[in-house]
Amino acid sequence: MYPISPQLAAFVTKTESFSGDDSSLAGLRRNYDRMCQAFTPPKPEGLQVTDFALGAVGVRSYLPSAPTPIEGWPCLLYMHGGGWVVGGLDSHDFICFELASTLEVLVIAIDYRLAPEHPFPAAYQDCRAVWQAIQAGQGPHAINLQRLVVMGDSAGGNLAAALCLGLRDDGQPLPRAQVLIYPGLGGAADLPSRRDCRDAPLLSTADTDCYLALYLPGADTPSAYAMPLLAEDFSGLPKALIAVAQFDPLRDDGMLYAERLRAATVEAVLYPGKGLVHGCLRARGHVAQVDQLYDYLLGYVRRCLGSEGLTQV
After folding, report:
1. Is 80 exceeded by the pLDDT of residue 309?
2. Bigger pLDDT: 116 vs 20
3. Is 248 a catalytic residue?
4. Which residues contact 221 (CB under 8 A, 6 or more apart)?
5. Which residues pair with 18 in a beta bridge?
6. Would strands 239-243 and 177-181 be described as parallel, antiparallel, or unpaired?
7. Assigned domain for 312 exists
8. Number of C-beta neighbours around residue 126 at 10 A
9. 3-class DSSP state for residue 149?
10. 32, 87 in Cβ contact below 8 A?
């Protein structure tokens, strides 16, 4: 039903092989962690990886071996995916390794609290706390506050967009850009992608509903910080790259967000992800379309952070 490449189909099969019979929350997390581990490459040589806390929230930094730039490190703040329910720092080492080593920038990943033990707004508040701590100059690394980009995939893309909304609303300093990869942004249940991709590989419409119910239990009128597409005003937000996957029930969330930003005269680039499925970032090096996505993401972030020609100490 979904015309994906043989290479992507092989990736889907391998990913699905880690799903087990244990449907409990603990089982779900255990299987997800095993799957992530199977797709995590060795740490690149020379990359310094350190766990610490910012604003009382656990984070992991990925520091290149190059000397610290005179004005501090350009920094990419990364929020992991996993439906707000699974994942953590280890689950997204794979992309943070690549971002830090290829771009030669500092990457900081946030270990935000997970639902259902900690429903909204816990994860959002954790991301805000880390942002505020960076602005206050906390932590072991010298960071150039003029060269900060926020980035996330899936639920992490939701949190990155929500963080930008909250900072704008409160008149706080904003990141230079927001990079959202197949984000779930609270689009309506009748969006075409919910129907057309209801049983798509790796993420079904029923999956998205389940994760959202765990993140937002009993919310009558959800906040725009939980579902950014509910915002009434999209002006004054950071420019955005939104990468969606063609065969993904969340596809139209990202497309709508790009439309709303553009209507509010915010620069927004939409990457259509032709032939891709949700969760495909882990297929780096195995699927040509995924490698093309990475090339586009890396090029965009490099331009945003202005990381070429840094003056080193």
Report:
1. no
2. 116
3. yes
4. none
5. none
6. parallel
7. no
8. 23
9. strand
10. yes
Percentage, residues of the chain above pLDDT 90: 94
Residue 119 belongs to domain spanning = 6-305
Residue 307: the pLDDT is: 62
From the list 61, 91, 101, 154, the catalytic residue is 154
Structure confidence at residue 313 (pLDDT):
47
CB 255 within 8 A of CB 184: no
Query: At residue 81, does pLDDT exceed 60?
Result: yes
Q: Half-sphere exposure of residue 304, counting CA atoms within 13 Å on the CB side?
A: 26
Point out the catalytic residue in the list 248, 252, 253, 307. Answer: 248
Residue 132 Cα distances to 106, 169, 174, 260, 267, angstroms: 17, 15, 11, 27, 25
> If you ran DSSP here, which 8-state letter would residue 259 be given?
H
Q: Report pLDDT digits (tens) over 201-217.
A: 999 999 999 999 999 99
Given the residues 80, 92, 141, 278, select the one marked as catalytic: 278
| CATH code where residue 87 lies | 3.40.50.1820
At 158-188, the pLDDT tens digits run 999 999 999 999 999 999 999 999 999 999 9
Contact partners, residue 55, CB within 8 Å, separation at least 6 = 126, 129, 130, 132, 133, 138
**Nearest alpha-carbon partner for 194 in 253, 110, 111, 148:** 253
Residue 66 lies in a domain: yes
Catalytic residue list contains 154: yes
Give me the number of domains the chain comprises: 1
Using DSSP's 3-state secondary structure scheme, residue 239 falls into strand
Kindly write down the DSSP assignment for every residue of 71-120, as one continuous string: T-EEEEEEE--STTTS--TGGGHHHHHHHHHHHT-EEEEE----TTTS-T
